[in-house]
Design brief:
By secondary structure, the chain is of the alpha/beta class. It has one domain: Aldolase class I (TIM Barrel), CATH 3.20.20.70. Helix content is 32%, strand content 19%. The strands form four sheets. An eight-stranded parallel beta sheet has the order 3-16-15-10-9-8-7-4. Helix 5 packs parallel to helix 6, helix 6 crosses helix 7 and helix 8 packs across helix 10. The longest helix is centred in the last third of the chain and has 15 residues.
């Protein structure tokens, strides 16, 4: 397509850009998905957003048994974002399959289940239970900073990350995305470890460790003391890490961390992401995911780009 054709000419001829992308052999109608833990399983947001319009819905973390999560208070607003120490509260795999997965099956969107656990056995149990379910991909959460045992320990040690990825791949019935933590010294090393273990894709970043203190009461604001920082404040760190990870591996990278607009999403893709996930800002604007999809399409039209796939790694 010649560069001198403007968006009005393009639109008038009906040649809208191809928004589809492919992750590990799974075709998404567009690159925009939800970030785990910020969208439930879609039920809460379905009155605001047409889930059929999204590339994928990524569910809240699912464990082998119900988790109560951390004590309250466990959410706090901070400059440029929020802290959370939810602790992966979830109803467990049985309720998830019967209630949440049954709900998601109604929609023409891909379903990615986020899997959490304290131990290898817990992860593997959930992955095995999901192997024959109508799920398109699994996202393995080895990066939550708010769980007292397990989870993040797998994501901060490259050998542990490689080992658990290998074990999950042996029993998984779907492509496996390993979700990486930013709370490491070398994100490229962790990306390579996930790839070496057989991961089909990686997603990053999860939240950065943070803290807030009430200076009048001289008390920690969160009962957990520390929490995960998310929101626009972390976006420059996330973009940098996505770029580093994309340079280090050949598997697809899903970028997230502070996306608040279509332009933010495009920035992640230019840095090397094949798709993006919108997270904390869903709480600020429940319509945001759909706005990002529409805004990305308009960006492609405005810049005479024929496919969303052309954005990946296209930074000059």
């Amino acid at each position: 397509m010649s560069a001198d054709r403007n968006s009005s000419e393009w639109t008038n001829k009906g040649a809208l850009p191809d928004m589809s992308v492919e992750i590990a052999g799974v075709t998404l109608k567009n690159p925009v998905m939800t970030a785990s833990g910020t969208f439930g399983s879609g039920m809460e947001y379905s009155e605001f957003v047409d889930l059929n319009h999204l590339g994928a819905v990524v569910t809240k973390g699912v464990a082998n048994v119900p988790w109560e999560g951390n004590p309250t208070p466990r959410v706090a607003e901070v400059y440029g974002g929020m802290l959370n120490a939810i602790g992966l509260q979830n109803p467990g795999i049985d309720v998830f399959i019967e209630r949440d997965l049954a709900f998601l099956k109604q929609f023409d969107t891909k379903v990615i289940v986020n899997v959490c656990g304290h131990t290898e056995e817990e992860y593997l149990e959930v992955v095995e239970r999901l192997a024959d379910q109508p799920v398109d991909m699994l996202e393995i959460n080895v990066s939550c900073p708010n769980v007292k045992q397990g989870a993040i320990q797998f994501g901060q040690d490259p050998k542990c990350l490689c080992d658990i990825t290998e074990k999950i791949k042996r029993v998984a019935g779907q492509p496996v995305i390993m979700k990486l933590t930013p709370n490491v010294t070398d994100i490229a090393q962790m990306a390579r470890a996930a790839e070496a273990g057989g991961a089909d894709a990686i997603s990053l970043i999860n939240t950065l460790m943070g803290m807030k203190i009430d200076v009048e009461k001289r008390k920690f604001v969160l009962a957990n003391k520390t929490g995960g920082l998310s929101g626009p404040a972390i976006k420059p760190v996330a973009v940098r890490m996505v770029w580093q990870a994309a340079q280090a591996v050949r598997i697809p990278v899903i970028g997230m961390g502070g996306i608040a607009s279509a332009e933010d999403a495009v920035e992640f893709m230019l840095a090397g992401a094949s798709a993006v996930a919108v997270g904390a800002m869903n709480f600020h604007d429940p319509y945001l995911t759909q706005k990002v999809v529409d805004g990305m399409e308009q960006y492609l039209i405005r810049h005479n780009i024929s496919t969303a796939r052309e954005l990946t790694g296209a930074v000059l």
